[in-house]
Amino acid sequence: LAYAYLAPELVGTLYSEDVALWRVAVVDLVTKRVTELGVGFAPQFVSEAPRVILFSTPDGVTMVNLSTTEQRVFNEFPVLYTPHAARVSPDGQRLAVHNPTTRHYSIFTITDPEAFDISALGEVPTSLSPVALSNTALYGVQRDEASNIFSLWRYPLEDLKPLEAHGTLLFTVESGFIP
């Protein structure tokens, strides 16, 4: 079991968007042993064998092999705010990371979790937040600040090519309107 919790000195605080205020831990449900992994948010298992976990930190997206404690930090993707936390597909084969420079999501294939190998699949050419990743698509919300209209988009992963992704608009809604 992996989880994130607010730093102990923040007693009484229920939530913060600042990733630096969160800590990541893993509990072995058999031995009840808790392993602290440090600062981070949104821990997700990438693979079962070997047991590899991924989470977002202000220094970058971090992958940790829980058997060997070996880790790799992808420094090119620092995550400062919780809505931009990296996402892993349910099958553990895809990774979506927010690029703070372009404000877009880059999609990667996790080619070898044990070696911490990822390969670029493409980038979604739209600023989306928040996002969800399925085994076949990236879903994200785009907000038009001027009109306060929110649009839900779907980007099929098999169609991604660098800077050429074409999404499907699923629906739009005005802020404050509940269908």
Model description:
- There is one protein chain.
- By secondary structure, the chain is an all-beta fold.
- Helices cover 0% and strands 51% of the residues.
- The protein contains no helices and 15 strands.
- The chain has strands spanning 2-6, 22-27, 34-39, 41-47, 52-57, 60-65, 71-74, 87-88, 94-99, 104-112, 117-124, 131-133, 137-144, 149-156, 168-174.
- The strands form four sheets. The protein has a four-stranded antiparallel beta sheet with strand order 4-5-6-7, with no helix packed on it.
Question: How would you describe this structure in keywords?
Answer:
four-stranded antiparallel β-sheet, 0% helix, mainly beta, 179 residues
Write the SSE topology.
Blueprint: E1 2-6, E2 22-27, E3 34-39, E4 41-47, E5 52-57, E6 60-65, E7 71-74, E8 87-88, E9 94-99, E10 104-112, E11 117-124, E12 131-133, E13 137-144, E14 149-156, E15 168-174
Antiparallel strand pairs: 1-2, 2-3, 4-5, 5-6, 6-7, 8-9, 9-10, 10-11, 12-13, 13-14, 14-15
Quick overview:
This protein is mainly β.
N- and C-termini, Cα separation = 36 Å
Query: Strand order of the main beta sheet, please?
Result: 4-5-6-7
Counting DSSP E segments of at least 2 residues, the number of strands comes to 15
Q: Which segments are poorly predicted (pLDDT under 50) over 5 or more consecutive residues?
A: none
Task: Describe the sheet with the most strands.
Answer: 4 strands, antiparallel
Q: What class, by secondary structure content?
A: mainly beta
**Silhouette:** globular
Mean pLDDT: 88
